[in-house]
Specification:
With 266 residues, the protein is an alpha/beta fold. The protein has two domains: 1-155, Orthogonal Bundle (Cyclin A, domain 1), CATH 1.10.472; 181-256, no CATH class. Helix content is 63%, strand content 7%. The chain has eleven helices and four strands, in the order αααβαβββααααααα. A hairpin with a 2-residue loop joins strand 3 and strand 4 (139-143). Helix 1 (2-50) packs across helix 3 (59-75) and helix 3 packs across helix 4.
Length: 266
């Protein structure tokens, strides 16, 4: 009898866990949204100044974008190494991550609690070449000078922030498996059916619009593809149409679909 009672209690807890957890999450989001409203103008002033992507969104989507940026910012600890901290740094880094994941349900990259911001190129491990950023079990590492070059579009097809957040996205879905987005995981297989043959041809020496660094390994091919998808979508759609379509379906967004929020507001 005692075993039966314990079993029933365990079953009851299991059945109640999902709805209770969902209710707690909704309550938390509601509370966070109240806090966000007071800071929304501040977030808007920074994001609107720097991100072209933001201006492609409708007003409703812009509010969603800023709230996600706020939640991402609050979920992370930012560490500044040999670089002077500014108020825009954590907001812009959070916004770049949200840009990548804007079409997905899971966007917090929860495995990563710490983000390290360095001034410029650094050495990591036993590698002789300098790094602009990297992702490992200890956190996400970014160099501010290179990050801002990407935000400002100073180097064609390059956006280091998007590159590293691309690595972080696949890390949480396939390595740590701590924040799996069902759509992303399922659709990545279809993306790879298109992407891997292009990657393999690059390894054999074939050239295309992607930086040759994409041929280093498949992880880098993915991260470089993320950069080009957002930074030069028109050329990618023209020269690598199948890859562009696969990226668009995988991330549930199309950078060439521009919504004029001013017209919607009117």
């Amino acid at each position: 009898m005692e075993i039966l009672v314990i079993s029933l209690v365990v079953i009851g807890i299991i059945l109640l866990y999902d709805p209770v957890s969902e209710w707690i999450n909704r309550l938390h989001v509601k509370r966070q949204h109240k806090l966000f409203l007071a800071q929304e103008p501040f977030y808007h002033s920074i994001v609107a100044q720097h991100l072209r992507f933001y201006h492609r969104l409708s007003m409703e989507e812009q509010r969603k974008f800023l709230f996600r940026t706020f939640l991402f910012r609050k979920a992370k600890r930012f560490h500044y190494i040999e670089v002077e901290e500014s108020a825009e740094m954590p907001v812009l880094i959070s916004a770049i991550s949200v840009q990548l994941t804007f079409g997905l349900d899971k966007f917090l990259l929860n495995f990563f609690r710490d983000i390290y911001v360095l001034k410029d190129d650094y050495h990591y491990g036993f590698n002789s070449r300098p790094f602009q950023g990297h992702v490992d079990h200890s956190g996400i590492y970014l160099t501010w000078d290179n990050f801002m070059e990407g935000v400002k579009g100073q180097v064609p097809n390059c956006n280091m922030g998007l590159h590293e957040m691309g690595h972080a996205l696949t890390y949480v879905n396939f390595i740590s498996q701590t924040e799996e987005d069902k759509h992303f995981k399922k659709e990545f297989k279809n993306f790879s059916k298109v992407a891997r043959p292009i990657f393999e041809r690059m390894q054999r020496g074939e050239k295309n619009m992607l930086d040759p660094y994409a041929g280093t390994n498949y992880h880098e091919f993915w991260a470089v593809s993320v950069e080009v998808f957002f930074e030069n979508p028109m050329r990618m759609r023209e020269e690598l149409p199948e890859l562009y379509a696969a990226m668009s379906k995988l991330l549930r967004q199309d950078p060439l679909v521009i919504v004029n929020s001013a017209k919607i507001a009117a």
